[in-house]
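Example: DUF3558 domain-containing protein.
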Amino acid sequence: MTTRFVPAVTALLAAMLLLAGCSVDGEPVAVGQRDTGGDSQVDTDRYDNLLLECDILSDATISKVLGGGSVQGTFVGAICRWIVTGATTTSVTFTWYESGSLNSEKQIAKKFGYTTENIKIASQTGFTQRDPKDPGKCGVTARAPSRGVFTWWTEPRGGAAADPCAAPTKLMELVLSGGQ
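Written out as structure tokens, the predicted fold is:
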């Protein structure tokens, strides 16, 4: 009887320790609603270009390409995001994976079940990626001029554009040609 009791107690103690280690202090905060006051433990002077990739194109340029009226930009980790409102509200995402490669990104897209098509944009090799289950959204990935890969995604909320890849392709073209 004792030999069956010891493993059960050990498992119970392990579960209690695991659960005790999963608590998080503080209160959850919605994206864009963070507390900007108070002391920070991060030396932000060391990261003066942290948001630079999110300024790669102006909000006005992104809005013009998407045919929108207003743009609300947010930054989430290494991903830049915008919501463009107008006739159609569209989520726009830009990523720059400095150590990424086209082959790796294409393999990941295929693992998600996306269809891909090779393209050239501003003399750079790239590809489109589309989700057959959600034909309105499209991603365009291309080699970044310095290193890594850039990716633009657009995802309309509601109606889909006649060519869902037109907007992310144009955004990529602008970035690769210097933003103008």
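The radius of gyration is 22 Å.
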